[in-house]
Design goal:
By secondary structure, the chain is mainly β. It is built from two helices and 17 strands. It has a seven-stranded parallel sheet with strand order 1-3-5-7-9-11-13, covered by helices on one side. Strands 2-4-6-8-10-12 form a six-stranded parallel sheet, covered by helices on one side. Strands 14-16 form a two-stranded parallel sheet. The model has no long low-confidence stretch (mean pLDDT 91).
Length: 196
């Protein structure tokens, strides 16, 4: 019971926490070399905040698949390698604020699609790979008691490129990076492209 802090403990495996189902206070993970949160699979709620901060090797939230309630704030900050929030798929309620800040590789927040309410504010800042449209889609589907702030999330939203697409120069190659799907034929006729 109470707060549970894992601060710079060089933990790479949280399996000793497999029986943890509830933290009555806050859960704070700071500066650990974890790549995922496997071992917290049975955690269903926190009494107050969940802070996941400066875990530079963390790729996702995998391991939090049972978490459905955060009794305070959810802070996801400075997790440089985190590309997705997968693992938070069961989360339905945040009784404080949501802060997603400075996760430079974050490109996917769709795991929050079951989130129904955020009691206070939702803030997305300096997630340079995150698409603004995805933030808007999420925050418009969630009941938020306070304000929504979204700044410096300069990620390009993927789109479907209709018809045939030919890559013959550097500009075509750059434009191709915006396509999630090409509906026609894709032809690479770039004289110096050796890797795509």
């Amino acid at each position: 019971s109470g707060d549970f802090d894992l601060i710079a403990i060089d933990a790479t495996d949280l399996s000793p926490l497999a029986n943890l189902t509830n933290v009555s206070g806050r859960l704070y993970l700071f500066g650990n070399p974890l790549t995922n949160l496997t071992g917290l699979d049975n955690l269903t709620s926190t009494g107050t905040d969940l802070w996941i901060y400066a875990n530079s090797n963390l790729l996702s939230m995998d391991g939090l698949s049972s978490l459905n309630l955060i009794g305070g704030d959810l802070l996801l900050v400075n997790n440089d390698d985190m590309e997705t929030l997968s693992g938070l798929d069961s989360l339905t309620e945040i009784q404080g604020s949501l802060l997603v800040d400075s996760n430079s590789d974050l490109i996917n927040i769709s795991a929050l699609s079951n989130l129904a309410s955020i009691s206070v504010d939702a803030t997305f800042t300096d997630n340079y790979s995150l698409c603004e449209d995805d933030i808007t889609e999420l925050t418009s589907a969630v009941t938020i008691g306070g304000t929504v702030t979204s700044t410096n999330n300069a990620g390009v939203c993927p789109t479907t490129c209709i018809g045939d697409y030919v890559v013959s120069d550097d500009a075509d190659l750059v434009n191709l990076t915006y396509c999630s799907t090409v509906t026609g034929n894709l032809t690479i006729d770039h004289p110096t492209a050796t890797e795509i």
